[in-house]
Amino acid sequence: MKILVLADHHVHELLGYRECADLMRQALADLARGQIQQPLRTVVRLRGAAGFMGLMPAYSPGGYGLKALCITPGNPAVGKDAHQGGVLLFAADTGEPLALVNASAVTEIRTAAVSAVATGLLARADAAELAIIGTGVQGQAHAHALAATRPLSGIRLAGRDAARAREVAAELAGTLGLPVTAAGSAAEAVEGADIVVTATNSSQPVLRREWLAAGTHVNAVGACVPQAREIDTATMAEAALFADSRESVMNEAGDYLLAAREGAGNPVRAELGELLTGTAPGRASDGEITVFESLGLAAEDLAAASYLYQEATRLGAGTAADF
C-alpha cells in the first residue's frame, strides 16, 4: 500500500487562497446541508506538556479525514508555527489511508480563507481598509487571503514587537503591492478600519469596543480555547455574532464563554453555512458591527486535504511512501 505525503511546500504550491476560499464555501454549505459529518473536536491536555493536542475527524461521501494537531504556544518564540501536525485522508469505500498532509500549512491557508469567506458575507460591500492585530503566521496569512479575495485600500498591522511589525509590514507591502503600515498600537491600527482581524495567542482582550467604528466587521481568529479571549465583553455584547459552528463556539470560544460569564448573553445569529445556503440572515444594516468567531472545523480540513490529494495525484506532486 502507498500513501501520498504532502509537505508544507506542496500545500503552498497546490492550494492558493482564492481557490481555498471557494473550497471553504462549498464545505461550509455542505456541512449546513448535513452532507459532511463531524463531531466536536477532542482536546487532550496532559500534565507537564508544553501544549495540547486537538483531534478533529470528519466524514463526507468523498472520504474520511482526521487532523491531529499539537498546539504549542511557545513555538513562535523559537521561529516555529504554534500549530504542528498532520491531516490523514482515508478512502470512503475501503477506509485505506490515501494521504498524510502537513497540517500547519493546511491550517494556515484554510483558516485565513474561511475568514475571507466570512468577510465577503458580512463586511459592508465598500469595506476596504484592513487592520490586523498579530504579526505571526495567521496575521500574515489573513493579509494574503483578504487581498486575494477583495479590493483593499491598505493594511495596518499591530503586534507586541514593534520592530517585527515593521519588518512584516515591509514584506507584505512588497508581496501584495498594497500600502501596508505598522501601527504603534492595536488601537491605532483599528481606528477607522472597515475590517479587523485578531490573530494573536493572547489570553486577554486585544480589541475593545470603543475602538470600533460603526459597520466594522471583525474576524476573531486567535482564541480557540475556553480560557483565552481576544475580544472584550462590550464588543461581544453589542455585535452581531456569527460562527463556523454554533457547537464549537458554545464549547470552545473563550471570546463567547468569558463574555457570557460577565453577562453578555448574545447568541450566535447564524453559521456561515446557513448564510451560504440562505437559511439565516446576515448583516442587518450598514451600521451594525459584525463578529465572525472562527474556531476551525474538521470539515474544512477534509475539504482541503481532498482537494490537495486530487491535485497532487493529477500533477504527480508529493512523495509516495510504502505504508
What do you see in this structure?
The protein is globular and about 60 Å long. β3 and β4 (63-71) form a beta hairpin. The protein contains eleven helices and 15 strands. It folds into two domains: 2-106 and 299-322, ornithine cyclodeaminase, domain 1, CATH 3.30.1780; 124-296, Rossmann fold (3-Layer(aba) Sandwich). The chain starts with a strand and ends with a strand. The chain has an eight-stranded parallel sheet, with helices on both faces. The chain has a seven-stranded mixed sheet with strand order 2-3-4-5-6-1-15. The protein is an alpha/beta fold and 323 residues long.
List its traits.
2 domains; 11 helices; alpha/beta; 24% strand; 37% helix; Rossmann fold; 323 residues; ornithine cyclodeaminase, domain 1; seven-stranded mixed beta sheet; single chain; eight-stranded parallel beta sheet
Write the layout of secondary structure elements.
Elements: E1 2-6, H1 8-14, H2 17-32, E2 42-45, E3 52-60, E4 63-71, E5 83-91, E6 97-102, H3 103-122, E7 129-133, H4 137-149, E8 154-158, H5 162-176, E9 180-182, H6 186-190, E10 195-198, E11 217-220, H7 233-238, E12 240-243, H8 246-252, H9 254-261, E13 268-271, H10 272-277, E14 290-293, H11 298-315, E15 319-322
Parallel strand pairs: 1-6, 7-8, 7-10, 8-9, 10-11, 11-14, 12-13, 12-14
Antiparallel strand pairs: 1-15, 2-3, 3-4, 4-5, 5-6
Helix pairs in contact: 1-3, 2-3, 2-11, 3-4, 3-11
